[in-house]
Amino acid sequence: MPTPQHTDGQGCDFSSLLCSPLILAVLQEMHGPNAPDLVPQQPQQLQQLEDINSWVYTDLANGAYKAGFASSQLAYETAYKQFFVALDRAEALLAKHK
Fold first, then answer.
1. What is the pTM of this model?
2. Alpha helix positions (H), the chain
3. What residue spans define the domains of the chain?
4. Which of 2, 28, 54, 60 could form a Cys-Cys staple with 86, CB 3.0–4.6 A?
5. Which CATH number describes the domain made up of 41-98?
6. CA-CA distances (angstroms) from residue 10 to 23, 34, 52, 58?
């Protein structure tokens, strides 16, 4: 029987995965004639996406786990603060791009 393995997405580069040639080909095939182009094409846009993915994963998505499984009060408080700073950052980013 195979040994269960923990998977958490760590090390997964979502922007590279999203922009891989296979995924781009599938997206182009599914793309309707009047649909907006949502795949970033400019290097600056790709870098911005990578920057956002980095803090969203580290401080927001994984931050809840860091707080929930903290082994000390200090670790909990640090993760808690980082989580809510990231949540405020995400809220501001989303409000700006409605």
1. 0.58
2. 14-18, 21-30, 43-55, 62-68, 73-96
3. 41-98
4. 60
5. 1.20.1050.10
6. 20, 36, 15, 9
